[in-house]
């Protein structure tokens, strides 16, 4: 009698692909539309960014990326209002992140 070895597991080789597809569908259902900010909200974000830059205070940054609203804690290092960019240092991994200002939803002091 011959041993089948790994041949018996071949029918299950497509399962990881199915799980990846299901995960993508679930993530797509959890997506939200990017919030539209008023002029007043954008001005408040701008003032908070500038104050956090000059005082080196830690802030909560809420931004929109990939259909989700993400909140992180960090320090503002650089703001380029003409180029519509800013750089912040993540509190957890201490990595520099460059982002566009139009991705920002909210900025608050910790």
Account of the protein in words:
The chain has 110 residues and is α+β, with helices and mostly antiparallel strands. A hairpin with a 2-residue loop joins strand 1 (58-65) and strand 2 (68-80). The chain has a five-stranded antiparallel sheet with strand order 4-3-2-1-5, with helices on one face. The protein is built from two helices and five strands; from the N terminus they run H-H-E-E-E-E-E.
Give the topology:
Elements: H1 15-29, H2 39-55, E1 58-65, E2 68-80, E3 85-90, E4 96-100, E5 104-109
Morphology call: elongated
Cα-to-Cα separation, first versus last residue: 70 Å
Number of helices: 2
**Assembly state (oligomeric):** single chain
The low-confidence runs, each spanning 5 or more residues with pLDDT under 50, are: none
Strand order of the largest sheet: 4-3-2-1-5
Q: How many beta-strand segments?
A: 5
| Rg, Cα atoms, Å | 22 Å
User: Helical residue percent?
Assistant: 25-40%
User: Could you describe the largest sheet, including whether it forms a barrel?
Assistant: 5 strands, antiparallel
Mean pLDDT: 84
């Amino acid at each position: 009698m011959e041993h089948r070895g790994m041949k018996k597991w071949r029918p299950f080789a497509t399962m990881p692909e199915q799980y990846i597809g299901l995960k993508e569908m679930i993530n797509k259902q959890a997506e939200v539309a990017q919030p539209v900010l008023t002029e007043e909200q954008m001005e408040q974000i701008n003032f908070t960014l500038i104050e956090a830059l000059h005082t080196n205070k830690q802030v909560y940054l809420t931004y929109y990326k990939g259909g989700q609203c993400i909140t992180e804690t960090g320090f503002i290092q650089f703001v380029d209002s003409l180029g519509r960019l800013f750089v912040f240092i993540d509190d957890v991994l201490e990595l520099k992140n460059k982002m566009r200002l139009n991705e920002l939803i909210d900025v608050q002091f910790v």
